[in-house]
Structures are given as structure tokens and as C-alpha cells.
Write a structure and sequence with these properties.
The protein is mostly helical. It has one domain. 70% of the residues lie in helices and 3% in strands. The chain is built from 13 helices and 4 strands. Helix 1 runs parallel beside helix 8, helix 2 packs across helix 8 and helix 11 packs parallel to helix 13.
Length: 359
């Protein structure tokens, strides 16, 4: 057991230390070079805040991964050997990370970012990381490779942008990713290298979360920026697809693993789909920014930013609990997913009505 726990702890603590040291340095650099997230009509903050906190996530993750590998060797095991899919994820993640850095520093049009994200999304399926079995979702199982390839690219793009676009209030994107990647640390523990990567990112995110939530403007408050949220989205996409691959998801539990992957990313994914459809219906461009995400409508209904955060994280935990209970009662996955969509739609509908009545 120590051969598993100690590498995970080493990865987690290494990332914590690096992030705790690195974030104050990034904040100082942002102040010196005046790299700020400036307030505007669609943002909830009213003062300039340093926005490059996400720069630390990838270095902390890599350092944590190496710390876990060295710890494993010291315990008498072999160092991590990374497969093609992990190397591809690293390359794709680096592209996504660099897009975010450029956008945070110089700004990029949403459509241009999407094109480059698409290039990065095509990398994982090239390494045979493709969804070819829907495990009973809406009655579907095996699907043709090319359809699975296209579906995988769409899934990656959706998850990446879902995590990016839900990063609109303090602690939300980072809080959701802490919960999601903690779950994947446990679920993928048989693949110690992948679990160690998750543990490192969780460690880095926890430190960032405290800076982001409790830091004072002008002090240690910082935003992750697109460098952080896009990178986190790509990691979450990789983990959700990787967990469906054999032998991680054995033949007899593929449906269960599919439900887990859907459950963990349901709220940000449903939110980005709802917003995209709403923009299309109202005649606005899909890439046109607005204030219609779930955190915006909660705040429009009168909740404070922190209260909106608590509501969304509580909804996440509620859906996880409901799905677990329904699965234990042997409900079919399509019914459970439809129930989730109904719960999300009901919550959004009620909150929107409250917001309209208050206005």
C-alpha cells in the first residue's frame, strides 16, 4: 500500500510547495509588468486583478509527477514509463497551455483560440485514445471508429471550453476541478503515473484556490486566466476519456465508468451547451461573450459571488449523490442522465424566474 500512497503524497506535496512559492512571485511579476484582468461589463470584479495564476499549474504538475516517480524508485519500484497517449496528452496540453498564456498576455479572438484548440483535440485520437463504445448511453454501444474519432474531438473541445467558460467567479472552476481530479486520482489509482498527475494538479489547485478565494485585491488575490482554465479543461477531458479505455475500465464496468465520467463533468458541460444554444436562439454569435452562465444567473437572482459558488458546488455534490443512489438501485444509465439534465434545467429555470421577478 505504501508503494501507492507515498508516491501520491510526494506528488501532492511537491505541487503544493511549488505553487505556494510560485504564486507570490507571479503576483509580483504581474504588478511589475502590469498584467491584470481588467474589469468590464460582463465581469463580476470591479478592480484590476493579476490573471496569470494558471501559469503555475503545468510546472507544478510536472514536478509532482517526477517526485512521485522518484519516490516509487526509492521504495524499490521502477520509475514511471509513459505510453504514447500520455505523451500525446502532454503535447496537446502544452499547446492548450501556450494558447492560454498568449491570450492572457496579448488577447486572442475566441474563434482563433477555438481553431488551435481543435488542432490540439485531434492529437489524442491519433494515439488511439478514442471513444468507440458508449456503454449503453441512450442505448448505444459499439460505434464506428471514424464516428468515435469525431465524437472524441467534440468531447474534448466541449470539456475544454466548459471548464474555461465556467471560470467566471472566485473558486468555481478551480473548486470543480479539485473535486473532479480528486475523484480521478482514486478511480485511476491502478495507473499510478496518471493518478500522481491528478494528485499534483489537485495540490496546486488547492493552494491557488485559497489565494483566489481569500486573497485581497492588491495583496495576494490572483485569477488563473486562460492558461489555467484551458489547461485544466484539457486534463479533465483526457482523464474522462482515459478512464473509459481498457484495461482501466474493464468490460464488466464500462457502463459504470461512463456514468462516472458524465457525472463529474455534467454541470460545466450542460452549462456551455445551454449558453451556446441560448446565444444561437437569440441571434447572438456562439463566441460572443455575455453574462448567461449559471453563476451569472445565480448572482442575477440576488446571490453573492460566494453564495453562488456554494450553490453550484452543492448542486455538483447533489447530482453525484443522486446518481450513485440511482445506480445502486439498478436504474439504467440513460434514465439517470436524463434525470440529471432535468434537475439542471429545473434549477436554471427556477433561478432565472427568480432573477426576472426581482428585476
Amino acid at each position: 500500500m505504501n508503494n501507492i500512497i507515498l508516491p501520491l503524497v510526494a506528488s501532492f506535496l511537491t505541487a503544493v510547495i511549488i505553487t505556494a512559492i510560485g504564486l507570490p512571485l507571479i503576483i509580483k511579476a504581474c504588478r511589475y509588468f502590469r498584467f491584470y484582468d481588467l474589469p468590464d461589463e460582463r465581469k463580476v470584479h470591479s478592480k484590476p486583478v493579476p490573471r496569470l495564476g494558471g501559469l503555475i499549474f503545468m510546472p507544478a504538475a510536472v514536478a509532482g509527477l517526477f517526485a512521485a516517480s522518484w519516490t516509487k524508485v526509492l521504495l524499490g519500484g521502477e520509475e514511471f514509463v509513459f505510453g504514447v497517449s500520455t505523451i500525446a496528452m502532454t503535447f496537446g496540453g502544452l499547446i492548450i497551455y501556450l494558447i492560454g498564456v498568449i491570450d492572457d498576455r496579448y488577447g486572442m479572438k475566441a474563434f482563433h483560440k477555438f481553431i488551435i484548440q481543435t488542432v490540439a483535440a485531434f492529437i489524442l485520437p491519433l494515439c488511439n485514445l478514442v471513444i468507440t463504445d458508449l456503454n449503453g448511453l441512450f442505448g448505444l454501444h459499439q460505434i464506428p471508429f471514424m464516428i468515435g474519432y469525431a465524437l472524441t474531438v467534440v468531447a474534448i473541445l466541449t470539456i475544454v471550453n466548459a471548464i474555461n467558460l465556467i471560470d467566471g467567479i472566485d473558486g468555481l472552476s478551480s473548486g470543480l476541478c479539485i473535486l473532479v481530479l480528486t475523484a480521478y486520482t482514486v478511480l485511476l489509482i491502478d495507473n499510478l503515473a496518471i493518478a500522481s498527475l491528478d494528485a499534483a494538479i489537485v495540490g496546486s489547485l488547492l493552494v491557488f484556490w485559497f489565494f483566489n478565494m481569500f486573497g485581497k485585491v492588491g495583496g495576494h488575490k490572483i485569477f488563473m486566466g486562460d492558461a489555467g482554465s484551458l489547461f485544466l479543461g484539457y486534463v479533465c477531458a483526457y482523464m474522462s476519456i482515459k478512464s473509459l479505455m481498457r484495461p482501466i475500465a474493464p468490460e464488466d464496468c464500462g457502463e459504470k465508468q461512463m456514468l462516472i465520467s458524465i457525472t463529474l463533468l455534467l454541470i460545466p458541460v450542460l452549462d456551455v451547451i445551454r449558453v451556446a444554444l441560448q446565444r444561437r436562439i437569440t441571434g447572438h454569435g456562439i463566441f460572443e461573450p455575455d453574462k448567461t452562465h449559471i453563476h451569472h444567473i445565480l448572482m442575477n437572482a440576488g446571490l453573492s459571488m460566494h453564495a453562488a459558488l456554494v450553490c453550484i458546488l452543492s448542486l455538483f455534490l447533489l447530482i453525484c449523490g443522486i446518481n450513485y443512489a440511482l445506480w445502486q438501485c439498478h436504474f439504467l444509465m440513460p434514465f439517470i442522465v436524463l434525470m440529471d439534465i432535468a434537475i439542471y434545467a429545473l434549477v436554471c429555470g427556477v433561478v432565472m424566474l427568480v432573477g426576472k421577478s426581482d428585476n
